[in-house]
Amino acid sequence: MQTIIEPFRIKSIEPIKLTTLAEREQMIEAAGNNLFLLRAEDVIIDLLTDSGTSAMSAEAWAGIMRGDESYAGARSWYRFRDTVMDIFGFEQVIPTHQGRAAERILFSVTVKADSVIPNNTHFDTTRANIEFLGGKAVDLPCAEALDMDSDHPFKGDMDIAALEQLIADTGPERIPMIMLTVTNNSGGGQPVSMANIKEVSRIAGSFDIPFYLDACRFAENSYFIKKREPGYADKNAIDIAREMFGYADGCTMSGKKDAFANIGGFLCTNDAKLAHRERNILILTEGFPTYGGLAGRDLEAMAIGLREVLDHDYLEYRLMSTQYVVDRLRDKGIPVVYPAGGHAVYLNARRFLPHIPPLQYPGQSLSVELYREGGIRSVEIGTVMFGHDPHSGEETPARWDLVRLAIPRRVYTQSHMDYVLEVIEQVWQRREKIRGMKIAEAPDFLRHFTARFEWL
Ligand SMILES: *Cc1c(COP(=O)(O)O)cnc(C)c1O
Hints:
Layout: H1 21-30, E1 45-46, H2 58-66, H3 75-88, E2 92-96, H4 99-108, E3 116-119, H5 124-132, E4 136-139, H6 160-170, E5 178-181, H7 194-206, E6 211-214, H8 218-228, H9 237-246, E7 250-254, E8 265-269, H10 272-285, H11 296-308, H12 312-331, E9 344-348, H13 349-352, H14 362-374, E10 376-377, E11 379-381, H15 383-386, E12 402-406, H16 414-429, E13 437-441, E14 452-455
Parallel strand pairs: 1-10, 3-4, 5-6, 6-7
Antiparallel strand pairs: 2-8, 7-8, 9-12, 11-12, 13-14
Helix pairs in contact: 1-14, 2-11, 3-11, 4-5, 8-9, 8-12, 12-16, 14-16
The structure holds pyridoxal-5'-phosphate (PLP).
């Protein structure tokens, strides 16, 4: 069959409030031109994030009712722990309320003020948590990742030569861990190959440096490996995931991504001593080790979601529905990161609006215009997010200026995506008239969440 359908039926719906252009202009102005500050009900298609926005299955909702809310040793904890151990294979599982809580706990026991942590590309909360402790977060994407026109199948790979150079320059003792983010969210949602995971693992091992996966989209990455890497076509996603984690010493995970959960996360390691120290911090700020920062029902939902997300019909639909949007944009000549990543479509704002210099935030301008035009909420991934050094206060253009349209799992249909395509095309037609922006006010850390912007 040529047509790939959503492999589910809709049993429960949420109405969308349709707004007018005049209403949207007034609302985005009141929100300081920051899409994070809008009321969600004033958004028509919400592509701000795929995080915590997934549609749960009837089975997961049933699990919510079955959740065991016992303070210690709940049945839902054991179900969750056993599922994580089965898929991820690590000996120690620490439940947290989100991925960033897992990051904070991990870094607070490993990162010092002179530490350096390489990653293919750090996600914003990962970078912020390292920098908050005084450490340095270094991005080492492969050369192809920087080429928006490259069709390279694994643009999420780390630059191996750059990693070896960094270890030589820094000294392994200052590197508490090497990380790989699968798929590489901030680098365009691009997958990391098994070959790269293996090679980074080998290098880390040779210097006795722990190797961690930021596993948020592990199922999507596994399916990309199945589809694109020689030798994996006949393997199941779950076996590919197991192999991937087999090369790592631990992982951080957000259940709000590839676990279909609305909240949740976890931290894994094979190091029992480290886990002991991590659990001591967990108890201080999250909760008892058998629930972390979660309710029993959340653990139950994650346990069910982690299995569902590895279903091949789901993963095929997931990757193909993202590619559907990317292919159509590309056909129209609209600058989009190619090949399609897993969870999101990334418009290349610097090319979409070449007349706006990076320090006038072309990504922010474009995302505000997509809202004005059609009520679409996206997120800037560029100079607003990464262009500010919180220690020096210095402002420099980020490596790229992208606008991410993240696609919530199992939430929007193809006709919603056809609407999104039409809105983008309308903005594309009048792109030459779009102006840059300046920041009116912003905090030092994670400024993109609360900054207010003005048109130039
Ligand atoms: C979402 C995300 C995180 C943080 O997880 P939260 O649950 O939002 O705290 C970390 N890394 C990556 C790659 C992510 O996508």
